[in-house]
Amino acid sequence: TMLPFVLLLGNHSSGKSSFANYALGRRVQQCGVAPTDDGFTVIAPGEEDADQDGPALVSDPDLGFEGLRQFGPGLVQHAKLKLRTDLKASNFCVIDSPGMIDAPGGSTLDHGHERGYNFEASVRWFADRADVILLFFDPDKPGTTGETLSVLTNALSGCDHKLHIILNKADRFEKIHDFARAYGALCWNLSKVIPRKDLPRIYTTCIPPADGEVREGHGDLANGLEDLRRTRDDVMAEVFRAPTRRVDNAVTRLRDAASVLLMHLDVCSAARSARRKELFALYAPSVLAASACVSGAGGLFVAGAVSPAVACGAGGLAATAGLHYLNAKNCRRNLERLDSQEGLDSLYRKIYAKESVRGDGESLATWHVVRQHLLEKVVPVGGAALAPAAPMGAHKKLRKILDVEAPRLRRQAAPATYPNVRHDEGSEAAVP
Questions:
Q1: How far apart (Å, rounded) are the C-alpha atoms in residues 44 and 95?
Q2: β-strands 202-204, 93-96: how paired?
Q3: What DSSP character marks residue 421?
Q4: How far apart are CA 166 and CA 9, in angstroms?
Q5: Quick one: which H or E segment has residue 134?
Q6: Which helix (H) or strand (E) holds 347?
Q7: Which of 29, 181, 361, 372 lies deepest, with the highest CB count within 10 Å?
């Protein structure tokens, strides 16, 4: 996208729009207890106040949102672009999202596409490109919704480095034990979808009223408002870091994409090699058996033994057909296994044996992404073995990106100096 951006996600009535107004320094979004937005809203600095609809947003080649077309008119027609003057943020934009809720009966909206588009996939599209992601939770719904948990599990996987979880409206609690219960419920539900023992930091904060002052505390939490202010300042600091994070995130995306493409290339190449071996094992014995049969029958025929020659030829061809039938069944079974999860895992362990032995977490995480794509996109249309081969030199270019270009860009984006470290543009690594 043209500008760095902050993505706001969360349950409905969790304070996303209120936070957007507070962070931008003016009222842009409507706020309320009931859902107020039914689509994604891009709020960007402009020379004058102006609103544009979704088709205009995705049609502007300079904004960088053309990729939203893939989700269809259900998303595009409900998206908005709001250009505003006098924003606190003049070098990044904020994207507000529709509140996440559950459909009647407990099923998540996205599973049935009741929104008219794949909400989870669209969140993934925004999250991949966002520089900061804020995920809001409301104290009234600390258990979260099924759609929120699904998004956190799937759409936001791999975005931990830029994801910040916020328990908003913390000034609403009147008693300590109410806060403890809500905070504990949120931690419990997050622990079921975050696969590690240590939960990320949960920012407990609140948004001041429109006049700019936090409402006075009451009850047992009156003395905690200053801590909420400090936490809100921490969140705001992360928001305004979005422009400086843009370069780091771009380099990270480049490296991740190169890693995925390289592994995809390696696995598909290994699958093609395995398929050739299976086909050779299928046809070679049949060709040899048929050749031997024809040679034997020909020898008998030349010797004048016509009847034995015919019998030998017929028997040999029948035996060859039986052998080919058995080999074909075995070949078909092996090729089907090749495109199964077990078969693809076997190829990965064979190609990346060293990484598998030492338990390389980065390699395994990349493989999970590649395997999912192969199983969902490639296998249904023919399998990894029939995927088109990469152009000549692609493997070398991808390896250069990982070993040379990405580290060079990372050094250029790093702080100007580190203690006792010299940045050398001509080398492949920083020299201590």
A1: 9
A2: unpaired
A3: B
A4: 10
A5: strand 132-137
A6: helix 341-351
A7: 29
